[in-house]
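Before surveying the methods themselves, it helps to consider a single example record, giving the amino acid sequence and backbone structure tokens:
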Amino acid sequence: MHLLMLTALIAILISLSGCSDTANIPQTKKSSEKAPEKTPVVTGVVTVKSVPLRIEAIGNVEPFTTVAVKSRVEGQLLTVAFHEGDAVVQGQLLFEVDSRQYKAQLRQAKANLARDRAQLGNAKATLQRYEGLQGKNFVSGEMLFKARTDVEVYAANIEADEALIESAQLLLDYATIHSPISGRTGRVMVHAGNQVKADSVLVIINQIEPVRVNFSIPEQQLQALRAFAKTGEVKVRAKIEGATGDMPTGKLSFIDNAVDTATGTIKLKAIFDNKDQHLWAGQFVRVMVDLKDEANAKVVPVKATLTGPKGSYAFVVNPDMTVAKREIVVERVQDDESVITSGLEKGEQVVIDGQSRLIDGSAIEIKSAP
């Protein structure tokens, strides 16, 4: 009896153990199946707004006028009346050259003039006396002719003396060198105490109020620019790398008369008053010319557009949180946005970060932008 009960108990335990193992099999298989991995991305939205039609180029700042100040006389440089890099005004004293020899030359020329004037006075008196005596046959024709010649010679000498005085005065004036323009000085080439020669460059002055900016645009943009220029003054802005605040604004002043066939570009110049001197000679700036506003333009962040073998494309977010690779047409890039002509519609979400890990149909999860 006890043996029978023990056998029945063992059978029940074996049965329960088998049922438990069978129930656990589907659960193990289910846990081994993994859900598809989702790629974290940042997204942006296709918007429609008014976008300016803008021409952008890299420009180079050049001074409105550049003057190489030279010495026009020879001598020892006595004074440098400014510091390198100073702003100077027109007429300001810059250099002084030893002028003692030129003062002496001027005094000598004036003395020669006084001598010849005295001689001319004497010659005129002699001529007048001879002409009075001619009727009395006291003076020969030869003497009268010589007296008239002497008057003409001394008169010519006086003209020569006056010219020498002017020349000597010029040399004396050249010994003090003044600024021919208002601008900013560069490095001093010759310092005080050195001997300078005529035509020696002493300093270079750049006029930077106003200032010019040179830039070039593709020939495809020339017609739009010329058409806009017919309506009035074309404003040009210059963006300085690292600068804050309002950009300097100038006006277009020059369009070259021919397209450069080697580069397919045309040269332009703009003038900026540069009162605050934000623009510096030789500096590179980004030039922007706003022609008109393009209404109802579809734009996306420029990071959303990628380039492949078939052209531009973007990853569009589907409602089921997957992405579709879609070919698009980018008309132009304006600031940090791309203007799209086809391929996207207003309100669609596009991926702007994380595209490198995506393919057509990838599952995603949207994260906030850093």
Remarks:
- The two ends are 79 Å apart (CA to CA).
- The longest strand covers residues 47-70.
